[in-house]
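TL;DR need C-alpha coordinates for one chain.
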Amino acid sequence: TTEIYTLSLHDALPIYAVEVDVDAVRDATGEVVICGVMEHVEEAGVHSGDSACALPPQTLSGSVIGELERHVRVICEALQVRGLCNVQFAVKDDRAYVLEANPRASRTVPFVAKATGVPVAMVAARVMVGATLAELRTEGLLTEPVGGHVSVKEAVLPFNRFPGVDTLLGPEMRSTGEVMGIDATFGLAFAKSQIAAGNRLPTSGTVFLSLADRDKTSGLDAARGFAALGFDLAATSGTAAMLAAEGIDVGTVVAKVGESHPGKVDAVELIAGGKVQLVVNTPRGRGPRADGLHIRATALAHLVPCLTTVAAAKAAAAGIADWVSHPLSVRSLQEYHQR
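>> reply
TL;DR here they are.
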Protein backbone atom coordinates (compact mmCIF):
# COMPACT_ATOMS: atom_id res chain seq x y z
CA THR A 1 0.00 0.00 0.00
CA THR A 2 1.14 3.54 -0.59
CA GLU A 3 -0.26 6.77 0.80
CA ILE A 4 -0.19 9.97 -1.25
CA TYR A 5 -0.87 13.42 0.20
CA THR A 6 -2.12 16.05 -2.22
CA LEU A 7 -2.18 19.83 -1.86
CA SER A 8 -5.06 21.97 -3.05
CA LEU A 9 -4.87 25.67 -3.83
CA HIS A 10 -6.21 26.37 -0.34
CA ASP A 11 -3.58 24.32 1.51
CA ALA A 12 -0.51 25.91 3.06
CA LEU A 13 2.75 24.46 1.76
CA PRO A 14 4.88 23.08 4.61
CA ILE A 15 7.64 25.57 5.47
CA TYR A 16 11.05 24.48 4.21
CA ALA A 17 9.71 21.52 2.29
CA VAL A 18 12.08 20.08 -0.31
CA GLU A 19 10.72 20.02 -3.85
CA VAL A 20 11.44 16.97 -5.99
CA ASP A 21 10.86 16.27 -9.70
CA VAL A 22 10.50 12.69 -10.91
CA ASP A 23 10.47 11.71 -14.59
CA ALA A 24 9.21 8.30 -15.65
CA VAL A 25 8.17 6.32 -18.76
CA ARG A 26 5.31 3.81 -18.80
CA ASP A 27 4.57 1.42 -21.66
CA ALA A 28 1.38 -0.33 -22.81
CA THR A 29 2.14 -3.39 -20.64
CA GLY A 30 2.08 -1.25 -17.51
CA GLU A 31 5.81 -1.37 -16.83
CA VAL A 32 7.21 1.89 -15.47
CA VAL A 33 10.84 2.98 -15.60
CA ILE A 34 11.96 5.80 -13.30
CA CYS A 35 14.29 7.95 -15.40
CA GLY A 36 15.42 10.42 -12.77
CA VAL A 37 14.71 11.76 -9.28
CA MET A 38 15.80 15.40 -9.04
CA GLU A 39 16.07 17.23 -5.72
CA HIS A 40 15.66 21.00 -5.92
CA VAL A 41 18.19 23.25 -4.22
CA GLU A 42 15.69 26.03 -3.43
CA GLU A 43 12.86 25.05 -1.10
CA ALA A 44 9.36 24.36 -2.39
CA GLY A 45 7.61 27.58 -3.37
CA VAL A 46 10.18 28.64 -5.97
CA HIS A 47 8.99 27.74 -9.48
CA SER A 48 10.65 24.51 -10.65
CA GLY A 49 11.86 26.30 -13.77
CA ASP A 50 13.77 28.83 -11.64
CA SER A 51 15.23 26.37 -9.15
CA ALA A 52 18.53 24.54 -9.32
CA CYS A 53 18.25 20.79 -8.90
CA ALA A 54 20.60 17.85 -8.39
CA LEU A 55 20.59 14.33 -9.77
CA PRO A 56 21.04 12.07 -7.88
CA PRO A 57 19.31 13.62 -4.81
CA GLN A 58 21.76 14.81 -2.17
CA THR A 59 19.75 14.86 1.07
CA LEU A 60 16.82 12.49 0.53
CA SER A 61 17.03 9.11 2.24
CA GLY A 62 16.76 5.88 0.31
CA SER A 63 13.38 5.16 1.91
CA VAL A 64 11.98 8.54 0.83
CA ILE A 65 13.26 8.07 -2.73
CA GLY A 66 11.68 4.60 -2.82
CA GLU A 67 8.38 6.04 -1.61
CA LEU A 68 8.44 8.77 -4.27
CA GLU A 69 9.07 6.17 -6.97
CA ARG A 70 6.13 4.08 -5.68
CA HIS A 71 3.87 7.13 -5.80
CA VAL A 72 4.90 7.82 -9.39
CA ARG A 73 4.12 4.23 -10.42
CA VAL A 74 0.67 4.46 -8.84
CA ILE A 75 -0.04 7.78 -10.59
CA CYS A 76 1.18 6.49 -13.97
CA GLU A 77 -1.06 3.44 -13.63
CA ALA A 78 -4.08 5.48 -12.57
CA LEU A 79 -3.65 7.85 -15.54
CA GLN A 80 -2.87 4.98 -17.94
CA VAL A 81 0.12 6.91 -19.23
CA ARG A 82 1.88 5.68 -22.35
CA GLY A 83 5.14 7.57 -22.65
CA LEU A 84 6.58 10.20 -20.35
CA CYS A 85 5.17 11.42 -17.05
CA ASN A 86 6.54 14.07 -14.69
CA VAL A 87 5.44 14.31 -11.05
CA GLN A 88 6.45 17.13 -8.72
CA PHE A 89 6.49 16.59 -4.95
CA ALA A 90 7.10 18.59 -1.81
CA VAL A 91 8.78 16.47 0.88
CA LYS A 92 8.55 17.50 4.53
CA ASP A 93 9.44 15.27 7.49
CA ASP A 94 9.64 12.24 5.15
CA ARG A 95 6.06 12.82 4.00
CA ALA A 96 5.49 13.33 0.27
CA TYR A 97 2.93 15.86 -0.98
CA VAL A 98 1.99 15.77 -4.66
CA LEU A 99 2.13 19.25 -6.19
CA GLU A 100 1.25 18.23 -9.74
CA ALA A 101 1.38 15.27 -12.12
CA ASN A 102 1.86 15.85 -15.85
CA PRO A 103 1.34 12.94 -18.29
CA ARG A 104 3.78 14.44 -20.79
CA ALA A 105 7.41 15.41 -21.27
CA SER A 106 8.75 18.15 -19.00
CA ARG A 107 11.66 20.55 -19.34
CA THR A 108 13.74 18.20 -17.17
CA VAL A 109 13.93 15.45 -19.82
CA PRO A 110 17.04 16.83 -21.63
CA PHE A 111 18.78 17.29 -18.27
CA VAL A 112 17.98 13.74 -17.18
CA ALA A 113 19.21 12.33 -20.50
CA LYS A 114 22.53 14.18 -20.27
CA ALA A 115 22.96 13.30 -16.60
CA THR A 116 22.25 9.58 -16.98
CA GLY A 117 23.33 8.76 -20.54
CA VAL A 118 19.89 7.31 -21.30
CA PRO A 119 18.13 8.73 -24.43
CA VAL A 120 14.91 9.38 -22.53
CA ALA A 121 13.06 11.23 -25.32
CA MET A 122 13.86 8.50 -27.86
CA VAL A 123 12.77 5.77 -25.46
CA ALA A 124 9.48 7.58 -24.77
CA ALA A 125 8.83 8.20 -28.49
CA ARG A 126 9.31 4.49 -29.28
CA VAL A 127 6.99 3.54 -26.40
CA MET A 128 4.30 5.92 -27.68
CA VAL A 129 4.26 4.19 -31.08
CA GLY A 130 3.98 0.69 -29.64
CA ALA A 131 7.36 -0.58 -28.43
CA THR A 132 7.65 -2.04 -24.95
CA LEU A 133 10.37 -1.22 -22.47
CA ALA A 134 11.46 -4.87 -22.53
CA GLU A 135 11.96 -4.69 -26.31
CA LEU A 136 13.99 -1.50 -25.99
CA ARG A 137 16.24 -3.16 -23.43
CA THR A 138 16.85 -6.02 -25.84
CA GLU A 139 17.72 -3.54 -28.59
CA GLY A 140 20.15 -1.77 -26.28
CA LEU A 141 18.33 1.56 -26.47
CA LEU A 142 17.15 1.43 -22.85
CA THR A 143 20.18 0.96 -20.61
CA GLU A 144 20.97 1.42 -16.94
CA PRO A 145 21.82 5.01 -15.96
CA VAL A 146 25.49 5.89 -15.76
CA GLY A 147 26.51 6.77 -12.19
CA GLY A 148 29.59 7.96 -10.37
CA HIS A 149 28.96 11.70 -10.78
CA VAL A 150 26.56 14.47 -9.75
CA SER A 151 24.70 16.69 -12.20
CA VAL A 152 23.27 20.09 -11.27
CA LYS A 153 20.76 22.01 -13.39
CA GLU A 154 20.66 25.76 -12.92
CA ALA A 155 18.26 28.35 -14.32
CA VAL A 156 19.48 31.27 -16.41
CA LEU A 157 17.65 34.39 -15.30
CA PRO A 158 17.43 37.56 -17.43
CA PHE A 159 17.76 40.06 -14.57
CA ASN A 160 20.86 41.76 -16.00
CA ARG A 161 18.76 42.93 -18.95
CA PHE A 162 16.18 44.61 -16.72
CA PRO A 163 17.94 47.11 -14.42
CA GLY A 164 16.07 47.72 -11.19
CA VAL A 165 13.96 44.54 -11.34
CA ASP A 166 13.64 42.55 -8.11
CA THR A 167 15.64 39.32 -8.32
CA LEU A 168 13.59 37.58 -5.64
CA LEU A 169 12.52 34.09 -6.73
CA GLY A 170 8.97 32.83 -6.18
CA PRO A 171 6.17 30.80 -7.76
CA GLU A 172 6.17 32.83 -10.98
CA MET A 173 8.65 31.44 -13.53
CA ARG A 174 11.15 34.04 -14.72
CA SER A 175 14.02 32.03 -16.22
CA THR A 176 14.83 32.14 -19.93
CA GLY A 177 17.10 29.13 -20.16
CA GLU A 178 18.95 26.39 -18.32
CA VAL A 179 22.54 25.17 -17.93
CA MET A 180 24.10 22.22 -16.13
CA GLY A 181 27.31 21.31 -14.35
CA ILE A 182 28.71 17.81 -13.90
CA ASP A 183 31.47 16.62 -11.57
CA ALA A 184 32.36 14.07 -8.93
CA THR A 185 30.75 16.02 -6.06
CA PHE A 186 27.70 18.20 -5.63
CA GLY A 187 29.83 21.20 -4.67
CA LEU A 188 31.95 21.06 -7.82
CA ALA A 189 28.92 20.47 -10.06
CA PHE A 190 27.10 23.39 -8.42
CA ALA A 191 30.11 25.68 -8.86
CA LYS A 192 30.27 24.77 -12.57
CA SER A 193 26.55 25.42 -13.00
CA GLN A 194 26.92 28.89 -11.49
CA ILE A 195 29.77 29.76 -13.86
CA ALA A 196 27.67 28.56 -16.81
CA ALA A 197 24.70 30.65 -15.66
CA GLY A 198 26.86 33.79 -15.38
CA ASN A 199 26.96 33.83 -11.56
CA ARG A 200 30.56 32.85 -10.89
CA LEU A 201 31.04 32.28 -7.16
CA PRO A 202 33.84 34.18 -5.39
CA THR A 203 36.62 32.34 -3.54
CA SER A 204 37.59 35.24 -1.28
CA GLY A 205 36.38 38.61 -0.07
CA THR A 206 33.25 39.59 1.88
CA VAL A 207 29.86 37.91 2.09
CA PHE A 208 26.95 40.16 3.08
CA LEU A 209 24.13 38.43 4.98
CA SER A 210 20.62 39.72 5.59
CA LEU A 211 18.36 36.92 6.80
CA ALA A 212 14.66 36.97 7.55
CA ASP A 213 13.75 35.88 11.09
CA ARG A 214 12.50 32.51 9.90
CA ASP A 215 15.82 31.93 8.10
CA LYS A 216 18.23 32.92 10.85
CA THR A 217 18.62 29.49 12.46
CA SER A 218 18.91 27.59 9.19
CA GLY A 219 21.30 30.25 7.86
CA LEU A 220 23.87 29.49 10.55
CA ASP A 221 25.39 26.61 8.60
CA ALA A 222 25.89 28.78 5.53
CA ALA A 223 27.48 31.56 7.60
CA ARG A 224 29.80 29.08 9.33
CA GLY A 225 30.72 27.65 5.96
CA PHE A 226 31.66 31.05 4.52
CA ALA A 227 33.62 31.98 7.67
CA ALA A 228 35.52 28.67 7.59
CA LEU A 229 36.52 29.42 4.00
CA GLY A 230 38.14 32.67 5.11
CA PHE A 231 35.45 35.10 3.95
CA ASP A 232 34.84 38.26 5.94
CA LEU A 233 31.20 38.63 6.97
CA ALA A 234 29.03 41.73 6.85
CA ALA A 235 25.43 41.70 8.06
CA THR A 236 22.41 43.71 9.10
CA SER A 237 22.09 44.33 12.84
CA GLY A 238 19.59 41.54 13.51
CA THR A 239 21.50 38.94 11.54
CA ALA A 240 24.82 40.11 13.04
CA ALA A 241 23.46 39.77 16.60
CA MET A 242 22.27 36.23 15.91
CA LEU A 243 25.62 35.23 14.37
CA ALA A 244 27.59 36.81 17.21
CA ALA A 245 25.49 34.89 19.75
CA GLU A 246 26.58 31.71 18.01
CA GLY A 247 30.24 32.67 18.08
CA ILE A 248 30.49 33.75 14.43
CA ASP A 249 32.47 36.94 13.94
CA VAL A 250 30.87 39.68 11.85
CA GLY A 251 33.39 42.27 10.73
CA THR A 252 30.91 44.88 9.47
CA VAL A 253 27.44 45.66 10.81
CA VAL A 254 25.53 47.85 8.36
CA ALA A 255 22.97 50.55 9.04
CA LYS A 256 19.41 50.45 7.79
CA VAL A 257 19.26 51.60 4.17
CA GLY A 258 18.80 55.37 3.88
CA GLU A 259 19.30 56.09 7.59
CA SER A 260 22.26 58.06 8.91
CA HIS A 261 24.38 56.32 11.54
CA PRO A 262 27.76 57.84 12.42
CA GLY A 263 30.57 55.47 11.56
CA LYS A 264 28.31 53.02 9.72
CA VAL A 265 27.56 52.49 6.05
CA ASP A 266 24.39 50.86 4.79
CA ALA A 267 24.29 47.73 2.64
CA VAL A 268 23.72 49.64 -0.60
CA GLU A 269 26.80 51.80 0.00
CA LEU A 270 28.87 48.74 0.91
CA ILE A 271 27.87 46.82 -2.23
CA ALA A 272 28.15 49.83 -4.55
CA GLY A 273 31.62 50.53 -3.16
CA GLY A 274 32.89 47.16 -4.38
CA LYS A 275 33.39 45.83 -0.85
CA VAL A 276 31.03 42.82 -1.17
CA GLN A 277 31.65 39.78 -3.37
CA LEU A 278 28.50 37.77 -2.53
CA VAL A 279 25.08 38.79 -1.18
CA VAL A 280 22.70 36.50 0.72
CA ASN A 281 19.38 38.30 1.19
CA THR A 282 16.26 36.33 2.05
CA PRO A 283 12.74 37.83 1.95
CA ARG A 284 10.69 38.81 4.97
CA GLY A 285 7.25 37.46 4.14
CA ARG A 286 4.57 39.31 2.21
CA GLY A 287 4.97 42.75 3.78
CA PRO A 288 7.10 45.68 2.58
CA ARG A 289 10.67 44.69 1.76
CA ALA A 290 12.18 48.09 0.93
CA ASP A 291 15.66 47.31 2.29
CA GLY A 292 15.77 43.92 0.62
CA LEU A 293 14.63 45.35 -2.70
CA HIS A 294 17.34 48.04 -2.62
CA ILE A 295 19.99 45.49 -1.65
CA ARG A 296 19.08 43.05 -4.44
CA ALA A 297 18.80 45.84 -7.03
CA THR A 298 22.22 47.19 -6.07
CA ALA A 299 23.79 43.73 -6.26
CA LEU A 300 22.30 43.31 -9.73
CA ALA A 301 23.51 46.71 -10.90
CA HIS A 302 27.07 46.02 -9.70
CA LEU A 303 27.20 42.41 -10.95
CA VAL A 304 27.51 40.93 -7.47
CA PRO A 305 26.03 37.39 -7.17
CA CYS A 306 22.88 37.54 -5.02
CA LEU A 307 21.25 34.50 -3.40
CA THR A 308 17.71 34.82 -2.07
CA THR A 309 17.30 31.48 -0.26
CA VAL A 310 19.24 29.85 2.56
CA ALA A 311 19.35 26.61 0.58
CA ALA A 312 21.18 28.35 -2.26
CA ALA A 313 23.60 29.92 0.25
CA LYS A 314 24.43 26.51 1.70
CA ALA A 315 24.95 25.12 -1.80
CA ALA A 316 27.23 28.05 -2.64
CA ALA A 317 29.34 27.47 0.48
CA ALA A 318 29.65 23.79 -0.43
CA GLY A 319 30.54 24.65 -4.00
CA ILE A 320 33.25 27.12 -3.00
CA ALA A 321 34.69 24.67 -0.45
CA ASP A 322 35.02 21.91 -3.06
CA TRP A 323 36.32 24.35 -5.67
CA VAL A 324 39.07 25.63 -3.38
CA SER A 325 40.30 22.11 -2.57
CA HIS A 326 39.74 20.54 -6.00
CA PRO A 327 40.42 22.75 -9.06
CA LEU A 328 37.72 22.48 -11.71
CA SER A 329 38.38 20.25 -14.72
CA VAL A 330 36.51 19.60 -17.97
CA ARG A 331 35.28 16.29 -19.36
CA SER A 332 32.96 15.69 -22.30
CA LEU A 333 29.55 14.08 -21.93
CA GLN A 334 30.85 11.14 -23.94
CA GLU A 335 33.52 10.54 -21.30
CA TYR A 336 30.96 10.65 -18.51
CA HIS A 337 28.68 8.27 -20.42
CA GLN A 338 31.31 5.59 -21.06
CA ARG A 339 30.15 2.25 -19.72
